[in-house]
């Protein structure tokens, strides 16, 4: 083996079970790369398709629509979803996210928009947040019925738009909710947001975090890896306690879902406290499922607790 091959195979950064970066610059994603094509799902009777939002920035989305009453007899709420993965891995085309959106779309009777944003380390944070804002503006471009996608033109109820996401995707949903509150999207009413196991952090440990020392440094390091320009774990992008605009969150209802065995649990609970102190005038609902870990519902979607979590999300959307 020559010296070049040896250098190419040497690991520079190892973040199990997410990815490895080699000294050659090559990035190897260890999970989240499986691609499931769009389809008409027989189990849920939901049809999906892929759309390009920005060719220049390689932003796209997978759209989902229930076919039970097609065409719909009324306009449908819109659920704009952002996948997790530490800003580094996963896509809307992974089986777990594709199947999750099929389920929510069917049970909540919504149009699902699952956003494919660019990921770190090739595209470091906050590129994921900016891409997601462009995607949300693309959704809003259909308000007058003259957008590039006919499902959104014909069937979307822009008076009932929801944001959702898990882990890093919940972080993005939080960011977008504040940005909507500050900048507005003409013709769009952000009814509510759903954060599942939100990826928030901070320098000072809270709650039970100090009992999970082996994970604490990993989270600090993952954040610095995905956002090299950050000031650290108290950056407002990762620590909402330091965001002076928190009270400007642009929805009136919020569902925060936490898991009892998740190291991020206490951050989700703390977020509720922060919002209530911020002057925000909405209502926060917190749901905790004990004896489960981070994003358990994606790993074992048919278990009883995953179904309970799914039903909480669907009920929240259906209150609109």
From TrEMBL:
Residues 79-297 form the Alpha/beta hydrolase fold-3 domain. Keywords: Hydrolase. Its EC number is 3.1.1.1. InterPro entries: AB_hydrolase_3, AB_hydrolase_fold, Carboxylest/Gibb_receptor. GO terms for molecular function: carboxylesterase activity. The keyword NAD does not apply. It is an enzyme of class 3 (hydrolase). Belongs to the 'GDXG' lipolytic enzyme family. This is CXE carboxylesterase. It comes from Medicago truncatula (Barrel medic). The lineage of its organism: Eukaryota, Viridiplantae, Streptophyta, Embryophyta, Tracheophyta. The gene is 11445977.
């Amino acid at each position: 083996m020559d010296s070049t091959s040896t250098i190419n195979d040497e690991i520079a950064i190892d973040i199990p079970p997410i990815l490895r970066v080699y000294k050659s610059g090559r990035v190897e994603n260890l999970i989240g790369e499986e691609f499931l094509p769009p389809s008409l799902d027989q189990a849920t009777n939901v049809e999906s398709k892929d759309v390009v939002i920005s060719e220049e920035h390689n932003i796209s989305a997978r759209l989902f629509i229930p076919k039970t009453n097609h065409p719909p007899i009324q306009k449908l709420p819109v659920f704009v979803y952002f996948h997790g993965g530490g800003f580094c891995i996963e896509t809307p085309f992974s089986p777990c996210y594709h199947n999750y959106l099929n389920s929510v779309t069917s049970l909540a009777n919504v149009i699902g928009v699952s956003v494919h944003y660019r990921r770190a380390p090739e595209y470091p944070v906050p590129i994921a947040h900016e891409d997601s804002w462009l995607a949300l503006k693309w959704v809003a471009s259909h308000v007058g019925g003259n957008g590039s996608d006919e499902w959104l033109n014909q069937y979307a109820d822009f008076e009932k738009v929801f944001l959702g996401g898990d882990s890093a995707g919940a972080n993005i949903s939080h960011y977008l909710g504040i940005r909507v509150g500050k900048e507005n999207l003409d013709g769009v009413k952000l009814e509510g947001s759903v954060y599942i196991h939100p990826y928030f952090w901070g320098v000072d440990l809270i709650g039970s975090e100090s009992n999970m020392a082996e994970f604490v440094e990993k989270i600090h390091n993952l954040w610095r890896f995905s956002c090299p320009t950050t000031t650290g774990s108290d950056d407002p992008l990762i620590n909402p306690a330091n965001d002076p605009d928190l009270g400007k969150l642009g929805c009136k209802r919020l569902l925060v879902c936490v898991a009892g065995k998740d190291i991020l649990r206490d951050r989700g609970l703390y977020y509720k406290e922060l919002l209530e102190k911020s002057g925000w005038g909405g209502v926060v609902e917190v749901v905790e499922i004990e004896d489960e870990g981070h994003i358990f519902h994606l790993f074992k979607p048919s278990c009883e607790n995953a179904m309970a979590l799914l039903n909480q999300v669907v009920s929240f959307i259906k209150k609109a």
